[in-house]
Amino acid sequence: MELEEALDKVEREGYESVGLQGPAGLKGEMLEIAEELEDRGVEPLLLAEATFGGCDLADHKVEELGGEALVHLGHSPFYLGSGEVSGDNIDVLHVPYRLDRDFVPVLEEEADRIEEEKLGVLTTAQHTENVDEVMEWLNENGFDAVRGGKGSRVRNEGQVLGCDAGAALSIKDEVDAFLYVGSGKFHPEQIARHGKTYVLDPVQNNLEELEALSQDEYLQQQYARVLKHKDTENWGVIATIKEQQPGTVVDYVKDKLEEHGKNVHVFVGDRIMESDFKGFDIDIFVNTACPRMVDDFEDFTLVNPEALNVLDEVRD
User: Fold this and answer.
1) What percent of the chain is predicted at pLDDT more than 90?
2) CATH 3.40.50.11860 fits 215-313, yes or no
3) Would 262 disulfide with which of 59, 153, 257, 275, CB 3.0-4.6 Å?
Protein backbone atom coordinates (compact mmCIF):
# COMPACT_ATOMS: atom_id res chain seq x y z
CA MET A 1 0.00 0.00 0.00
CA GLU A 2 1.33 3.43 -0.91
CA LEU A 3 1.22 6.33 1.54
CA GLU A 4 -1.62 8.23 -0.10
CA GLU A 5 -3.70 5.05 -0.22
CA ALA A 6 -3.11 4.51 3.50
CA LEU A 7 -4.04 8.07 4.41
CA ASP A 8 -7.17 7.87 2.27
CA LYS A 9 -8.18 4.64 4.00
CA VAL A 10 -7.64 6.19 7.43
CA GLU A 11 -9.95 9.04 6.46
CA ARG A 12 -12.49 6.76 4.74
CA GLU A 13 -12.72 4.43 7.75
CA GLY A 14 -13.24 7.38 10.06
CA TYR A 15 -10.32 6.56 12.35
CA GLU A 16 -9.86 9.28 14.93
CA SER A 17 -6.48 8.18 16.32
CA VAL A 18 -3.73 6.39 14.38
CA GLY A 19 -0.27 5.15 15.36
CA LEU A 20 2.79 5.95 13.24
CA GLN A 21 5.73 3.55 13.36
CA GLY A 22 8.89 3.51 11.25
CA PRO A 23 12.62 2.73 11.16
CA ALA A 24 15.18 5.23 12.40
CA GLY A 25 15.89 6.48 8.88
CA LEU A 26 12.30 7.61 8.32
CA LYS A 27 11.67 9.57 11.52
CA GLY A 28 11.71 12.87 9.64
CA GLU A 29 9.10 11.55 7.23
CA MET A 30 7.00 10.38 10.19
CA LEU A 31 6.66 13.97 11.38
CA GLU A 32 5.48 15.06 7.93
CA ILE A 33 2.90 12.26 7.87
CA ALA A 34 1.77 13.20 11.38
CA GLU A 35 1.07 16.72 10.16
CA GLU A 36 -0.85 15.32 7.19
CA LEU A 37 -3.00 13.22 9.54
CA GLU A 38 -3.69 16.26 11.71
CA ASP A 39 -4.76 18.20 8.62
CA ARG A 40 -7.28 15.41 7.99
CA GLY A 41 -8.60 15.60 11.53
CA VAL A 42 -6.82 12.49 12.77
CA GLU A 43 -4.76 12.35 15.97
CA PRO A 44 -1.29 10.85 15.26
CA LEU A 45 0.39 8.69 17.87
CA LEU A 46 4.13 8.76 17.12
CA LEU A 47 6.09 5.70 18.23
CA ALA A 48 9.50 6.94 19.37
CA GLU A 49 11.10 3.49 19.27
CA ALA A 50 12.34 2.57 15.82
CA THR A 51 10.98 -0.56 14.20
CA PHE A 52 13.32 -3.22 12.88
CA GLY A 53 11.03 -4.81 10.31
CA GLY A 54 7.60 -6.09 9.40
CA CYS A 55 8.06 -8.57 12.24
CA ASP A 56 8.18 -5.71 14.74
CA LEU A 57 4.70 -4.21 14.88
CA ALA A 58 3.55 -1.82 17.61
CA ASP A 59 -0.14 -2.66 17.21
CA HIS A 60 -0.70 -3.56 20.87
CA LYS A 61 1.00 -0.40 22.09
CA VAL A 62 -1.13 1.72 19.78
CA GLU A 63 -4.27 -0.10 20.86
CA GLU A 64 -3.43 0.51 24.53
CA LEU A 65 -3.15 4.23 23.71
CA GLY A 66 -6.61 4.22 22.14
CA GLY A 67 -5.46 4.07 18.53
CA GLU A 68 -7.69 2.45 15.92
CA ALA A 69 -5.04 1.70 13.30
CA LEU A 70 -1.28 1.56 12.81
CA VAL A 71 0.56 2.98 9.81
CA HIS A 72 3.75 0.92 9.64
CA LEU A 73 6.38 2.62 7.47
CA GLY A 74 9.33 1.17 5.64
CA HIS A 75 8.36 -2.50 5.42
CA SER A 76 6.03 -4.78 3.51
CA PRO A 77 3.89 -7.40 5.31
CA PHE A 78 5.81 -10.17 7.06
CA TYR A 79 4.75 -13.79 6.69
CA LEU A 80 5.07 -16.73 9.05
CA GLY A 81 4.02 -20.05 7.60
CA SER A 82 1.22 -19.30 5.17
CA GLY A 83 -0.21 -16.30 6.99
CA GLU A 84 0.47 -12.58 6.98
CA VAL A 85 1.52 -11.15 10.33
CA SER A 86 -0.78 -8.27 11.19
CA GLY A 87 -2.58 -6.64 14.09
CA ASP A 88 -4.95 -8.66 16.23
CA ASN A 89 -7.48 -5.97 17.04
CA ILE A 90 -6.52 -2.90 15.01
CA ASP A 91 -5.94 -2.29 11.32
CA VAL A 92 -2.26 -2.36 10.26
CA LEU A 93 -1.45 -0.46 7.07
CA HIS A 94 1.97 -1.40 5.68
CA VAL A 95 3.56 1.43 3.70
CA PRO A 96 6.98 0.44 2.24
CA TYR A 97 7.63 4.14 1.56
CA ARG A 98 9.34 4.07 -1.80
CA LEU A 99 12.60 5.97 -2.02
CA ASP A 100 13.05 8.03 -5.17
CA ARG A 101 16.46 6.95 -6.39
CA ASP A 102 17.97 6.73 -9.87
CA PHE A 103 20.26 3.71 -10.15
CA VAL A 104 21.08 4.02 -13.84
CA PRO A 105 23.79 6.73 -13.51
CA VAL A 106 25.65 4.54 -11.01
CA LEU A 107 25.37 1.56 -13.36
CA GLU A 108 26.67 3.60 -16.26
CA GLU A 109 29.73 4.61 -14.25
CA GLU A 110 30.42 1.41 -12.33
CA ALA A 111 29.06 -1.61 -14.24
CA ASP A 112 32.45 -2.46 -15.72
CA ARG A 113 33.42 -3.67 -12.24
CA ILE A 114 31.01 -6.60 -12.58
CA GLU A 115 32.88 -9.64 -13.90
CA GLU A 116 29.91 -11.99 -14.30
CA GLU A 117 27.31 -11.97 -17.06
CA LYS A 118 24.28 -13.63 -15.44
CA LEU A 119 23.10 -11.65 -12.43
CA GLY A 120 20.35 -12.29 -9.91
CA VAL A 121 18.76 -8.93 -9.02
CA LEU A 122 17.49 -8.46 -5.45
CA THR A 123 16.31 -5.54 -3.34
CA THR A 124 14.22 -4.41 -0.34
CA ALA A 125 10.68 -3.09 -0.09
CA GLN A 126 11.80 0.51 -0.67
CA HIS A 127 13.27 -0.20 -4.11
CA THR A 128 11.07 -2.93 -5.62
CA GLU A 129 9.85 -0.46 -8.24
CA ASN A 130 13.44 0.32 -9.29
CA VAL A 131 14.28 -3.28 -10.16
CA ASP A 132 12.63 -3.13 -13.59
CA GLU A 133 14.76 -0.19 -14.75
CA VAL A 134 17.91 -1.83 -13.38
CA MET A 135 17.16 -5.11 -15.15
CA GLU A 136 16.31 -3.29 -18.39
CA TRP A 137 19.64 -1.44 -18.33
CA LEU A 138 21.58 -4.63 -17.59
CA ASN A 139 19.89 -6.60 -20.36
CA GLU A 140 20.58 -3.81 -22.85
CA ASN A 141 24.25 -3.60 -21.89
CA GLY A 142 25.59 -7.13 -22.17
CA PHE A 143 24.28 -8.71 -18.99
CA ASP A 144 21.62 -11.36 -18.42
CA ALA A 145 19.49 -10.16 -15.50
CA VAL A 146 17.31 -12.59 -13.55
CA ARG A 147 14.80 -11.36 -10.98
CA GLY A 148 14.94 -13.13 -7.64
CA GLY A 149 12.04 -15.32 -6.56
CA LYS A 150 10.02 -15.17 -3.35
CA GLY A 151 11.26 -15.93 0.13
CA SER A 152 9.17 -17.62 2.79
CA ARG A 153 8.58 -14.39 4.72
CA VAL A 154 7.78 -11.99 1.87
CA ARG A 155 5.45 -12.04 -1.09
CA ASN A 156 7.28 -9.70 -3.47
CA GLU A 157 9.55 -11.29 -6.06
CA GLY A 158 13.19 -10.40 -5.61
CA GLN A 159 12.69 -8.93 -2.13
CA VAL A 160 15.02 -9.92 0.69
CA LEU A 161 14.85 -9.39 4.43
CA GLY A 162 17.65 -9.41 6.95
CA CYS A 163 16.39 -12.83 8.04
CA ASP A 164 15.19 -14.17 4.69
CA ALA A 165 17.41 -14.63 1.65
CA GLY A 166 14.96 -17.03 0.02
CA ALA A 167 14.70 -14.79 -3.04
CA ALA A 168 18.42 -15.35 -3.62
CA LEU A 169 18.31 -19.08 -2.90
CA SER A 170 15.48 -19.54 -5.41
CA ILE A 171 17.77 -18.50 -8.29
CA LYS A 172 21.18 -19.44 -6.88
CA ASP A 173 21.76 -22.18 -9.47
CA GLU A 174 20.66 -19.94 -12.37
CA VAL A 175 23.09 -17.05 -11.88
CA ASP A 176 26.81 -16.37 -11.55
CA ALA A 177 26.48 -13.59 -8.98
CA PHE A 178 23.90 -11.44 -7.21
CA LEU A 179 23.27 -7.72 -7.59
CA TYR A 180 21.66 -6.08 -4.57
CA VAL A 181 19.84 -2.82 -5.33
CA GLY A 182 19.88 -0.56 -2.29
CA SER A 183 22.05 0.92 0.45
CA GLY A 184 23.63 -0.45 3.59
CA LYS A 185 25.06 -3.88 4.37
CA PHE A 186 22.45 -5.42 6.66
CA HIS A 187 20.40 -6.98 3.85
CA PRO A 188 23.10 -7.84 1.30
CA GLU A 189 25.23 -9.58 3.94
CA GLN A 190 22.47 -12.17 4.15
CA ILE A 191 22.64 -12.62 0.36
CA ALA A 192 26.43 -12.77 0.26
CA ARG A 193 26.43 -15.90 2.41
CA HIS A 194 25.03 -17.71 -0.61
CA GLY A 195 27.17 -16.35 -3.44
CA LYS A 196 29.21 -13.47 -4.80
CA THR A 197 27.26 -10.26 -4.26
CA TYR A 198 27.55 -6.74 -5.64
CA VAL A 199 25.84 -3.79 -3.96
CA LEU A 200 24.42 -1.07 -6.22
CA ASP A 201 24.11 1.90 -3.86
CA PRO A 202 22.57 5.17 -5.12
CA VAL A 203 23.20 6.91 -1.81
CA GLN A 204 26.96 6.38 -1.86
CA ASN A 205 26.90 6.55 -5.69
CA ASN A 206 28.94 3.41 -6.10
CA LEU A 207 28.88 -0.28 -6.92
CA GLU A 208 31.08 -2.64 -4.94
CA GLU A 209 31.52 -6.29 -4.19
CA LEU A 210 30.51 -7.17 -0.65
CA GLU A 211 32.84 -9.42 1.32
CA ALA A 212 30.99 -11.66 3.77
CA LEU A 213 31.24 -15.08 5.38
CA SER A 214 29.68 -17.96 3.47
CA GLN A 215 26.76 -19.75 5.10
CA ASP A 216 29.08 -22.59 6.12
CA GLU A 217 31.70 -20.22 7.51
CA TYR A 218 28.99 -18.35 9.41
CA LEU A 219 27.74 -21.56 11.02
CA GLN A 220 31.28 -22.69 11.82
CA GLN A 221 31.82 -19.36 13.56
CA GLN A 222 28.80 -20.03 15.78
CA TYR A 223 29.96 -23.59 16.43
CA ALA A 224 33.24 -22.15 17.68
CA ARG A 225 31.37 -19.88 20.09
CA VAL A 226 29.49 -22.84 21.52
CA LEU A 227 32.62 -24.97 21.83
CA LYS A 228 34.36 -22.18 23.72
CA HIS A 229 31.64 -22.47 26.36
CA LYS A 230 31.00 -26.23 26.22
CA ASP A 231 32.07 -26.62 29.86
CA THR A 232 30.11 -23.58 31.05
CA GLU A 233 27.40 -24.55 33.53
CA ASN A 234 24.95 -21.62 33.38
CA TRP A 235 23.35 -20.76 30.02
CA GLY A 236 20.73 -18.19 29.15
CA VAL A 237 17.97 -18.45 26.56
CA ILE A 238 16.57 -15.24 25.10
CA ALA A 239 12.90 -15.28 24.14
CA THR A 240 10.81 -12.45 22.72
CA ILE A 241 7.29 -11.39 23.57
CA LYS A 242 6.85 -10.00 20.07
CA GLU A 243 4.01 -12.00 18.58
CA GLN A 244 5.55 -11.52 15.15
CA GLN A 245 8.70 -13.35 16.31
CA PRO A 246 7.29 -16.32 18.21
CA GLY A 247 9.93 -18.11 20.26
CA THR A 248 8.61 -21.52 19.29
CA VAL A 249 11.98 -23.20 19.78
CA VAL A 250 12.49 -22.15 23.41
CA ASP A 251 11.46 -25.55 24.75
CA TYR A 252 13.68 -27.32 22.23
CA VAL A 253 16.68 -25.20 23.22
CA LYS A 254 16.01 -25.67 26.94
CA ASP A 255 15.70 -29.46 26.54
CA LYS A 256 18.84 -29.64 24.40
CA LEU A 257 20.92 -27.74 26.93
CA GLU A 258 19.58 -29.66 29.91
CA GLU A 259 20.33 -32.88 28.06
CA HIS A 260 23.95 -31.75 28.13
CA GLY A 261 23.84 -31.01 31.85
CA LYS A 262 23.44 -27.23 31.68
CA ASN A 263 21.56 -25.00 34.08
CA VAL A 264 19.19 -23.06 31.83
CA HIS A 265 17.59 -19.68 32.53
CA VAL A 266 15.02 -18.21 30.14
CA PHE A 267 14.94 -14.42 29.74
CA VAL A 268 11.96 -12.74 28.11
CA GLY A 269 11.94 -9.29 26.55
CA ASP A 270 10.51 -7.01 23.89
CA ARG A 271 13.48 -4.94 22.72
CA ILE A 272 16.51 -7.15 23.26
CA MET A 273 19.41 -4.96 24.41
CA GLU A 274 22.75 -6.39 25.52
CA SER A 275 22.91 -4.09 28.54
CA ASP A 276 19.79 -5.74 30.00
CA PHE A 277 21.67 -9.02 30.45
CA LYS A 278 24.49 -7.65 32.56
CA GLY A 279 24.65 -8.71 36.20
CA PHE A 280 23.25 -12.22 35.78
CA ASP A 281 26.70 -13.87 35.72
CA ILE A 282 25.90 -15.68 32.48
CA ASP A 283 28.40 -15.51 29.66
CA ILE A 284 26.58 -17.31 26.83
CA PHE A 285 23.01 -16.92 25.58
CA VAL A 286 20.99 -18.75 22.94
CA ASN A 287 18.87 -16.43 20.82
CA THR A 288 15.34 -17.50 19.81
CA ALA A 289 14.25 -14.03 18.65
CA CYS A 290 15.52 -12.28 15.49
CA PRO A 291 18.33 -14.50 14.13
CA ARG A 292 20.41 -11.51 13.02
CA MET A 293 20.99 -10.39 16.61
CA VAL A 294 23.83 -12.87 17.11
CA ASP A 295 26.27 -10.39 15.57
CA ASP A 296 25.20 -7.49 17.79
CA PHE A 297 26.41 -8.60 21.24
CA GLU A 298 29.96 -7.61 22.22
CA ASP A 299 30.36 -8.43 25.93
CA PHE A 300 28.48 -11.74 25.87
CA THR A 301 28.44 -14.70 23.52
CA LEU A 302 25.20 -15.09 21.56
CA VAL A 303 24.34 -17.98 19.22
CA ASN A 304 21.30 -19.21 17.31
CA PRO A 305 19.69 -22.57 18.19
CA GLU A 306 21.19 -24.51 15.26
CA ALA A 307 24.68 -23.90 16.68
CA LEU A 308 23.86 -26.19 19.63
CA ASN A 309 24.09 -29.23 17.33
CA VAL A 310 27.85 -29.14 17.79
CA LEU A 311 27.36 -30.15 21.43
CA ASP A 312 26.23 -33.58 20.24
CA GLU A 313 29.54 -34.03 18.44
CA VAL A 314 31.62 -33.36 21.56
CA ARG A 315 29.48 -35.29 24.01
CA ASP A 316 31.62 -36.99 26.65
Assistant:
1) 72
2) yes
3) 257
